[in-house]
Amino acid sequence: MTDMKPWAFELEEYIREGEPDRARRAELWQVAIGLQDVDGLTPSQYLLDTAKEHIEGELSIDQVQSRIAAYYQQRDERTQAELESEEADVVSSRIAEILGERAFTFSPSELKSIHGRLFKGLLKEAGAYRRYNITKNEWVLKGDTVRYSSWNIVPETLEYDFEKEGAFSYQGLSKLEVTRHIAAFASGIWQIHPFCEGNTRTTAVFIIKYLNAMGLEIGNGPFADHSWYFRNALVRANYTNLDQDVHETNRYLEAFFENALLGASHDLKNRYLHIDWVGDVNATGDGEMHIPQVAPQVTPQVLRLLDVLGDKELSLRQIAEALGLSDRKNIMRNYVVPALDSGRVVRTVPDKPNSRFQKYRKA
């Protein structure tokens, strides 16, 4: 794991030990603590020490939360730093709790419930949709703001996005296509910004739970080490300024999720996301940073498929005939899907993977 913070090194020891239950709890805490960075919050040493006791099985998560509550109740007068640490400690413990639960329902109500559980007692409007419009000055936008959804249509807009996602079929998609679709969905619900504060942490927890519910394991590294990048990538995915020739792009968010879901190793640097970033030798002509891609291994089957395709667009039946094979499931599994994952082959009808008009061609 790169760019690891000191607290993450301490928790990483439990993962390296290899004891499954401890490793799993340590991963949850890494994500929970790492996500506080989206708002510039730093958990206390007390939280870290208490988390270790939970990882080692000496405390339940309820006992952890009771200890944290008691710890801050002893302090009648607190500095601003202590107030921020309190929020970081409390929310971290709640994220660890929620991510450790298997229960999940894909709905706006679940998103709302997560926000309420995370920020109860910390935000006056925890678990409630905002009732005013908001702007936020963003460093990556030189002080400009994303245009968030109007407060009076937040429920309807969320319902629309969830209905659209619920009707979407992942069947037949390559892992890369799944990753990019998830990035787009996360970007959409974040742009709505349904809550007064805490939207990024709520969105992250919801997306992790959603991915786990679909049987997808998400690496803890990106959220533990690069949560501020995650937020900035969401900003860039939802910002356009035609006068400055800046356009919304999912490329940075896709890089984040490719690291998390595919084990890619994109360089997640926040400076690459700044709209004035001019890049270096890896910069593209439009002044944006080109994110290096990890070249997947090319199997003999993929090479053979590329040879068969040439400069043509072929259906699965035509590919089977050209290969001299009859088992189309085998062709999809060993030829087409790996080629799609590698980015060397694309669908001619990308929005409908199972379309009867579907064909494949070289990228």
TrEMBL record:
UniProt superkingdom: Bacteria
SUPFAM superfamilies recorded: Fic-like (SSF140931)
Domain named Fido: residues: 106-255
Presence of the UniProt keyword Protein transport in the record: no
Enzyme Commission number: 2.7.7.108
Chemical reaction(s) catalysed: L-threonyl-[protein] + ATP = 3-O-(5'-adenylyl)-L-threonyl-[protein] + diphosphate; L-tyrosyl-[protein] + ATP = O-(5'-adenylyl)-L-tyrosyl-[protein] + diphosphate
Protein name: protein adenylyltransferase
Pfam families reported in the protein's UniProt record: Fic (PF02661), Fic-like_C (PF21247)
Originating organism: Adlercreutzia equolifaciens subsp. celatus
Keywords: ATP-binding, Nucleotide-binding, Nucleotidyltransferase, Transferase
Keyword Transcription: no
One Gene Ontology MF term: AMPylase activity
Gene3D superfamilies: Fido-like domain
GO biological process terms on file: regulation of cell division
